[in-house]
C-alpha cells in the first residue's frame, strides 16, 4: 500500500465526520439564507437577498453580542490568570488537585440551576436588599448587562483557567531563576518570561470563551430578562417562535462571518505579539 493511499484511508473517517457534522450543516444554513419564509412558516425555496438586507432590524442583538462577548472574555482573563498563576506556581502541590477540583465544581451543576441562583442573588431579595440594609439604596442588578456579565464570568471562568494553568505548569522554573540571577525584579521576570511563555494558554482560553459566548443564549435570556439579548436569543426567536427560517439562517451566516473575521484577526495579532512563535496557535 502506497503512503498516500494509507494516509487517505486513515483520514477518511475523520474527513467524512467533519463533512457530515460541520460542513454540510453550514451549507444547508447558507442555502436557507437565500430562501423565503413559507406561508405557514419554515423554508420556501427561492433566491433572494432580502434576508441579508433586513439584518439591520436585529442590530440590537448584534451590538449586545459584540460588546458583551469581548467584555466577558476580558473579565474572564483578568480573573483567571491570577488564579491559574497561583494554582500552577504558588499553590502547594499537595493541595493543587483539590483546588483544581474546586474550580470545576460549578460544572457539576446544570447551568440552568446556576442561573436561577444568580437571579435570586441579584434580585430584590439578594444583594440589592443587603445593600439597602446598609443604607446605600437598592440598586437594580438583575435584567441588566451587569447581571449578564456576572453570569458569563461565573459560567465560563473554568474554560479560561485550565488552558492558562497548563501553560504555566509547563513553564521551566529555571528560566525564572536565571532571570532573578541576572538582576531582574519579579515584575520584569513576569513580563519578559512568564507572560510570553503563557501566551499559548491565554490565546486558547480566550478563543474558547469568545467563540462560545458569541452563540450564548441561556445566560442573556435568564439574567437579561428579555432586555439584554444576544444573537443566540434572536436565532431562537426566529427559528422556534416566528418560524422565519430563511431570516434566521441569514442572521446565523452573518454571525459566522463575524466570528471568522474576528478570530482570524485575533490569531494574527497574537502571533505577531508573540514574535511569530508557532506554539501560540494551539487553538
Automatic annotation (TrEMBL):
Entry keyword annotation includes Kinase: no
Compartmental location: Cell membrane
Transmembrane segments: 68-87, 99-121, 141-166, 202-225, 245-267
One Pfam family of this chain: BPD_transp_1
Gene3D superfamilies: MetI-like
Membrane topology: Multi-pass membrane protein
UniProt keyword list: Cell membrane, Membrane, Transmembrane, Transmembrane helix, Transport
Domain ABC transmembrane type-1: 62-268
Example of a GO biological process term: transmembrane transport
Keyword Cytoplasm part of the UniProt annotation: no
Signal sequence interval, chain numbering: none
Name of the protein this chain belongs to: Spermidine/putrescine transport system permease protein
Species this protein is from: Albidovulum denitrificans
Amino acid at each position: 500500500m502506497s503512503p498516500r493511499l494509507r494516509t487517505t484511508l486513515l483520514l477518511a473517517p475523520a474527513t467524512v465526520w467533519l463533512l457530515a457534522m460541520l460542513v454540510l450543516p453550514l451549507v444547508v444554513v447558507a442555502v436557507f439564507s437565500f430562501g423565503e419564509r413559507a406561508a405557514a412558516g419554515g423554508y420556501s425555496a427561492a433566491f433572494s437577498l432580502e434576508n441579508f438586507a433586513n439584518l439591520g432590524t436585529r442590530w440590537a442583538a448584534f451590538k449586545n453580542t459584540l460588546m458583551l462577548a469581548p467584555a466577558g472574555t476580558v473579565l474572564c482573563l483578568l480573573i483567571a490568570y491570577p488564579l491559574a498563576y497561583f494554582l500552577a506556581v504558588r499553590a502547594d502541590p499537595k493541595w493543587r488537585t483539590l483546588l483544581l477540583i474546586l474550580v470545576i465544581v460549578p460544572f457539576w451543576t446544570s447551568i440552568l440551576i446556576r442561573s436561577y441562583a444568580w437571579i435570586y442573588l441579584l434580585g430584590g431579595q439578594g444583594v440589592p436588599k443587603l445593600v439597602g440594609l446598609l443604607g446605600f439604596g437598592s440598586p437594580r442588578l438583575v435584567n441588566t448587562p451587569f447581571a449578564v456579565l456576572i453570569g458569563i464570568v461565573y459560567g465560563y471562568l473554568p474554560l479560561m483557567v485550565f488552558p492558562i494553568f497548563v501553560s504555566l505548569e509547563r513553564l521551566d522554573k529555571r528560566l525564572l531563576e536565571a532571570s532573578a540571577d541576572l538582576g531582574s525584579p519579579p515584575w520584569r521576570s513576569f513580563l519578559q518570561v512568564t507572560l510570553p511563555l503563557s501566551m499559548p494558554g491565554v490565546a486558547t482560553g480566550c478563543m474558547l470563551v469568545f467563540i462560545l459566548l458569541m452563540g450564548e443564549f441561556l445566560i442573556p435570556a435568564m439574567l437579561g430578562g428579555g432586555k439584554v439579548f444576544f444573537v443566540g436569543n434572536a436565532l431562537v426567536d426566529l427559528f422556534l417562535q416566528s418560524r422565519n427560517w430563511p431570516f434566521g439562517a441569514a442572521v446565523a451566516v452573518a454571525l459566522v462571518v463575524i466570528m471568522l473575521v474576528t478570530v482570524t484577526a485575533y490569531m494574527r495579532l497574537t502571533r505577531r505579539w508573540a514574535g511569530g512563535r508557532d506554539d501560540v496557535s494551539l487553538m
